[in-house]
Amino acid sequence: MPTRDSTSRISGRYPQATEDPSELLRELVAHLRQHRTQLREEWVARISETRLLTAMTKEEIFAEATSVYDSYVEALETETFEALQAYARNLSERIIPRGVETHEVVGIVLLLRDVLARSLFAKYQTDFEKLNRILDAYEPAANRIANTVAVGFVQERERVIRQQQEAILQLSTPVLQVRERLLILPIIGVIDPQRARQLTEQLLRGIRTNRAKVVVIDITGVAAMDVTVANHLVQTVEASRLLGATVIVTGLSPEIAQTLVTIGVDLGKMNTVGDLQGGIEQAERLLGYKVVPASESPQ
Amino acid sequence: MEVPILKQGEFLIATIQAALSDADLEHLRMALIQRVVRFRSRAVIVDVTAMDVMDSFASRTLKEIAQMIRLRGAETVIVGIQPEVAFAMVQLGITLESVATALDLEEGLAYLGQRFRNFN
């Protein structure tokens, strides 16, 4: 026995220099294929243990885990990452809307890496040399896989964010003409400095192209306003006046009214009316319109 | 570059056609406050459509023109401020508060016409 052991060790060490790393990877892949069911279950158990992917059901996690496992092994086998990248992107597309976070995605891939590494330790615990070489082949590939998946997820997320930002920017600032020389600018949602600037630009340009004399800015849909935005609003009102248009601001919520007075923004020059209807009525008066029911109008 | 000043009925119209130097602006101010009484004008329209930039001196001069013309018994309307210029002015804190403004010459004339019709 001792003789055999020593020869095997010698013969084990000898091919080290010539042994093809892809040969090792093949062996590794065979191992992972053979123990697929067991390793995958262990992995899923670890995922629920560490409370990752809580937004997904057990069945979903299992289904995704199976696909990830297979793609993972395939990436190890072929040493190409395009398929995995595509899968990662596809996976991200599906799970981002459900609120899955970056740390969860990175977490599960790292867990898989750990589970597989443990199984390698268990398999080669009697042959330390071989374990070393296997790990040499496995670790860079595993790291690259983790990297690919994480980058794929983040890229997809950034793409979604960019898309949404563009959509918001396009949707957020309609300048509408309701009557000759009367514009309405309904503002909905959060106003940040960038959006405030865009609103102003669109409004001033709208005043010029529509030859507006009165503008009603309705901020019913704005939940909160800070000093910067409030001052910007005041500046917009003043700039509109320089173009010869009167601005009426409507729909200041109680909260915004409180905030503005508390932070001391001077709205003295601003023409404010309670709601949009009142604002439009006042604008019509300024423009000399009189709206009467058809039955009352003199024929 | 001298700014032409046209007499149109009861109004004087000064159309700025290019970027003006500080001296040009002072000259314009002098010419306007002299002629407003000479022609017995009721109002002055300053058309700044061609001005792509308005520095603080130009804005201040416009404001002063308006104030001086009021002292000479007439009114001033500034017309044709460009949207970008308007916002830049406001950000510099120049709001021309006491001065009437209108979108363009046509609007300015309409504003004055209405104002003096109500007067009479």
Explain this structure.
The complex is a heterodimer of chains A (299) and B (120). Chain A is α/β, with parallel strands linked by helices and 299 residues long. Chain A has two domains: 9-167, Histidine kinase N-terminal domain (Globin-like, Orthogonal Bundle); 176-287, 2-Layer Sandwich (Transcription Regulator spoIIAA), CATH 3.30.750. Chain A contains eleven helices and five strands; from the N terminus they run H-H-H-H-H-H-H-E-E-H-E-H-E-H-E-H. Chain A has helices spanning 2-13, 21-34, 36-49, 58-78, 82-95, 102-123, 128-171, 193-210, 227-242, 254-263, 276-287; strands at 176-179, 182-188, 214-221, 246-250, 271-273. In chain A, strands 1-2-3-4-5 form a five-stranded mixed beta sheet, with helices on both faces. In chain A, helix 9 (227-242) links the parallel strand 3 (214-221) and strand 4 (246-250). Chain A is rod-shaped, with a radius of gyration of 33 Å. Chain B has 120 residues and is of the alpha/beta class. Chain B has a single domain (5-119), classed as STAS domain (Transcription Regulator spoIIAA), CATH 3.30.750.24. In chain B, 48% of the residues lie in helices and 18% in strands. Chain B contains four helices and five strands; from the N terminus they run E-E-H-E-H-E-H-E-H. Chain B has helices at residues 22-38, 56-71, 83-91, 105-119, and strands spanning 5-8, 11-15, 43-47, 75-79, 100-102. A five-stranded mixed beta sheet of chain B has the order 1-2-3-4-5, with helices on both faces. In chain B, helix 1 links the parallel strand 2 and strand 3. In chain B, helix 1 (22-38) runs parallel beside helix 2. The longest helix of chain B has 17 residues, at 22-38. Classes of the chains: A alpha/beta (299), B alpha/beta (120). Chain A binds chain B through residues 200-201, 204-205, 207-208, 211, 213, 235-236, 238-245, 269, and chain B through 78-79, 81, 83-84, 86-87, 89-91, 95-97, 101-103, 107-108, 111.
